[in-house]
Amino acid sequence: MSTEARRAPFPSFPPRPAEPPTRKTAEPPADGADTTAVTDTTAVTGAAGESPVETTTRLRPIVEPPRLDPRTDLPAADVPRADEAPADRPGQPPTAGPAGEPPAREARSAADTTAGYLPPPRIPPRPATPPPTRRRPVGAVDLTPRPGAGPPTVYAPPRPGSPETPSEATTRLRPVAARYPGRAVAVAACAVLGLGLIGGAVAGSVLSGEAGAADPRAGFATERGLWHSLPVDTLFPRTLEGTGAGPGGADRTWTRLGVAPDSTCRGKLDPLLLKALEPVGCVRLLRATYTDATSSDVTTVGMVFTEADPASMTALHARFTTEKLGERTDLLPGTYPVKFTVAAGFGDQQRASWTISVLTDAPVVVYAVSGFADGRKITEPQPAAQAMQPSGTTAAAQAGLGHEAKGIEERVERALRKNAATATEQP
Question: Is 75 within a domain?
Fold first, then answer.
């Protein structure tokens, strides 16, 4: 069997001529020429003056795909097919064909070249280990060193006898200042010396008489003139708020009904009370009358500005406390009835409860007296301290008139102390 017979997958057809055949015309045969040759030429070229006709359509050669070795999945370029002769191995002589014929590979190459067929190009073998083409997962960290980073730092234990050197630099620490015990001792000595200097200056001012500027008598002189230097609404506010001033801690609100013109104490106070105030004297008497939110109670509050000094006011306060002059019914303070108001009938017969307070930090005596707004007469008046007792059974105690007198007196006194302190501080 020839080489062309073994290459079954590829069709056997004559090679394509490099140039088209030359047209020939029929000429009369010469004498003695072979007519058979002319007849054959005419049969190939056709009739005179016609182009040659091909009997089949020209086909494109089909290239055989590369074969793969089933064991290694690589191109088996050197593995012979079953229908062709085994390929020659290196180091072995090529296998010869039939007698008088060249070896199989040379014969096949010559036949392919003659037929115009070129064998498919050899595909280089696939590498044994393909390069990795898998993409890095999302979020994975690339730990490969950057170009030019050099070898990684590896900790090596220090050599014997040499100081240890850290492989990585630590964070810079804030330097801590050195402590000097002597500095604390110096600060303490300066503090003691400063306190000593201040104490010496104060002692020197006292011994030299410079502290006389704080004489309380100078403050009394200023406070004694508050009755004409302060506005009426400052001495007797139009409204007084008595938070928790009522019986059982109830809140009270009092409204001013009227203010009496300033006057002397004679004829405005009971004779015995005026006699008890003679040691301190009386410069001016100020009075005002208030009523509660229900207009069922009325209260007169008054301030007696005296001529006394601090010592005299202290002595008077001690006498009222020890002799209980503020609880005697014959020392009741007077009232101030306001015309055309609920306090129009508030007179001496309507006094139900009262309180008297002698100040020691100001030359003033503050008092308050309360009664009913309906003008009823009271035969047994009761001091505010007694009428405020929870067990009180008198009319004044049941109506809370002791709370009315004490509450109004405390708030007027508190405002007076505040204004007196402000006036004393001013130059």
Answer: no
